[in-house]
Write a structure and sequence with these properties.
CATH topology of the largest domain: Arc Repressor Mutant, subunit A
Distance between the termini: 42 Å
Number of domains: 2
Strand content: 15-25%
Strand order of the largest sheet: 4-5-6
Number of helices: 4
Helix content: 25-40%
Amino acid sequence: MPPRYERVADALRDQIMAGTLRPGALIPSAAMLAHEHDVGRDTALKGIAVLRREGLLFLAPDKSIRVGPAAARPTRGPLSAPDEVLFVPADAVVRARMPTRKERERFNLSEGIPVLVVRTPTGEELHPADRVGLRLK
């Protein structure tokens, strides 16, 4: 069973991914999250911190915590060749996002490595961004 703070983070992340909490939306206070998830305020704050590190939440100028797009991360060195090149059709929609805890485990990803979501008319595929390159067919 994941730690309680990860369950708070997972619940918020699910709301963000489902569009219930839209970009720019103010998230519930730590006290409200603590009450809702039956955890302490510090545990709720720790769950919020996880999503801030993932780039899903940001501290606004008015000191509120809001939903935002994943922050662009600078590369730390020269880009290496991908392990695999995936050919995607021209009608595919590709976006990058930070993975959930389960997805990090599935792909054995370090924290801070995004996943690529490739959506085609026939379905959706997930790929680790540090190992897969994309090329149009």
